[in-house]
Amino acid sequence: MTARYPFTSRLTVLAQAVLLAATASQVIAAESESSIERITTTATRTETSAFRQPFSVSAVDENALTLLSATHIEEALNQIAGAQLQRGNGQEYLPALRSPVLSGAGACGGLLTAEDGIPLRAAGFCNINELFEAHSEMAQRIEVLKGPGSVLYGSNAVHGVINVITPDTTRGGGMAGVDYGSYGYSRYKLRSGYDAGNTGAGINASVTRDTGYRVDEGVDQEKVNLRHRYDGKAFSVNSGLTYTNLEQDTAGYISGTDSYKDKALAQGNENPEAYRNARSLRLWSKVSLSLDNGDDIIVTPFVRDQDMDFLMHFLPGQPVEQNSQRGAGIQSLWRHGIADNITLRTGIDGEFTEGDLLQYQDGATTGSAFLIETIPSGKHYDYSVDATVVAPFAMVNWEYGRWAWSAGARYEHMRYDYTNNMNSGRVREDGTACGMGGCRYTRPESREDTFSNFSPKLGAAYSIDDNTLVYANISRGYRAPQATELYRLQRAQTVAELKPEEADNIELGVKGKGESLRYNIAVYHMDKDNFIYRDSDYYYVNNGKSRHVGAEAELEWQMNPEWALIVAGTVAKHTYRHSELSGDIDIRGNDMDTAPRHVANTQLRYTPTETITAELAWQHMGSYYTDPENAHKYDGHDVVDLRTSWDINPALTVYGRINNLFDEAYAERADYTSFSGDRYFPGRLRNYIVSLVYRWE
């Protein structure tokens, strides 16, 4: 029998497993004094020990982010076991978190993204690339909550939550920096704040320019965070504003089997006309009130205003999409001590959003007679949707001896009020019919849709000692159908009868911390039902079923004062559980497309003095199938980066980075379609970045 995965891939994973085993063998009795406690706000909305939680929550901290000087958030999330972003072009990407890489119909909204705890997009209006609207380039840390997080975050937190935490600049101090790199890359950074005791204000800003590795690609991007703080005797108000602007010239896939291995093809651009422009604005104000009995009440109102337009170069006729959303919402939390060892967190979240979408095509479609007849110029879609979400929730934490229990539930009700702003059906904008069965794009009649979901979560943790904890949890996540899946139909489908996706998850894990060693090992089993996809008739349906089983390990081992080893590894299997014929092949039991079974990131860090750091990072991507039939495959890759820093003096630091040290030809993303064959987003060959950062108190 032929091995399903190459020997070299298995050997690579085995090597990293040996590193884990070798590290684990060094564990000795923990010292009496444990290392610095790590705090999370994503898990409970208030500052809480990440170690004590009966679930997996990981973070990339500010030191790691500064050394990394990431040009794309993908590079930071590579350091989280179970998380994987496949970079497209510019700031685009496709995400994965305890899942296959999410792409195509039904992919958007599989995980929830947030900045400072506020979801980047309203429920029902996700965008697969929405993390480029968070200021990850200048973040204090990036937290990742793995597995369903729907008790606190509601719809879309099926596979987990990625939360970008921006720095509190109201405490004074600051920094100024510049990054320069290959292929016309530069970034300018500024952080400054003013602290007047019980009040303060600050700014956190970056400007990025990248003329690109490929022909006719480029990114101009600006981001800014503004902060204000007021601390009273019994209450405090912390407010933030984030504005982002992206102007991108986009390069699409390159076509042809293994075309990414050809340097000329890899730097080419089959779609030089493609572009994406996006703007976002978020404003929030967190009001915290401390009561005399020790209770806390936190209320956070927020507003969003976003718009985007881009050329859909990947579709026949290359239409333009323009979408926008404006809305306001509120998050609330009451933290009440029922007893010394029992804490209740409860509240109600709500938001109202006005969204709209316009798709139009200026020129005539080219290609086959069928495409020319069924895809006319003019407007394809023009609709608006008013969405309302109301969601009460409650969570109780109980500590008893060495045991800690957590139980919670959320009920969420969502209502869409959809208005079609042009004629209905599969006809042209002027009302005339297309030949050959009708136009490709179908507009349903105006209507209302409602969805309600109940999501529970139960966890338990047992402290073997002060530095070792075992835990288990069961949870349910859900995802309401997105507006585009309900109202952006094709061919003969006039109504999309869709139900919410649901995912049931079981997780077991062990955590450890000490002076020289930290680790978090977890295994999980999740079954997802009703996932949405587009069938062979181009109908949106949601009879999809999948299974996600995996094991993750995150480990930090300070081997001695100079050397440290950091490993984040995942072994997982993501498979289809429903029968669906694709040609003559039933995909049930197949690996889901773009679901590598082995992914690992290993960093070897050397600190010979207090002022010098060098780090060698090895990113391993296992092989994966690029189609549901499991007939086409990408062989995976191994890429090594080198990063260094030197503190010239306490205020001035220089950073150097060599990406793809060994000049490996690889694909950031591999894909296969019946109409284009194998296609890729190529990775960059060896490139360099130098940074200079000046800090002040």
Structure description:
By secondary structure, the protein is mainly β. The chain is built from seven helices and 40 strands. The protein has a 22-stranded antiparallel barrel. The protein is globular. The N and C termini lie far apart (64 Å).
Mean pLDDT: 93
Question: Which stretches are poorly predicted, pLDDT < 50 over at least 5 residues?
Answer: 1-34
Task: Find the count of extended strands (DSSP E, 2+ residues).
Answer: 40
Distance between the termini: 64 Å
**Helical region count?**
7
Q: Rg, please?
A: 25 Å
Specify the overall morphology: globular
Estimated share of beta-strand residues: over 45%
Strand and helix layout:
Blueprint: H1 7-25, E1 39-40, E2 48-49, E3 57-60, H2 62-68, H3 73-77, E4 83-87, E5 93-97, E6 112-115, E7 118-119, E8 141-146, H4 150-153, E9 160-165, E10 174-181, E11 185-195, E12 199-210, E13 218-231, E14 235-249, E15 254-255, H5 263-266, E16 275-290, E17 296-311, E18 320-339, E19 342-361, H6 369-374, E20 378-400, E21 403-420, E22 441-442, E23 447-465, E24 468-479, H7 483-487, E25 489-490, E26 501-513, E27 517-534, E28 540-558, E29 563-576, E30 581-582, E31 585-586, E32 598-609, E33 612-621, E34 624-625, E35 633-634, E36 637-647, E37 652-659, E38 667-673, E39 677-682, E40 687-696
Parallel strand pairs: 6-9
Antiparallel strand pairs: 1-2, 3-8, 4-5, 6-7, 8-9, 10-11, 10-40, 11-12, 12-13, 13-14, 14-16, 15-39, 16-17, 17-18, 18-19, 19-20, 20-21, 21-23, 22-25, 23-24, 24-26, 26-27, 27-28, 28-29, 29-32, 30-31, 32-33, 33-36, 34-35, 36-37, 37-40, 38-39
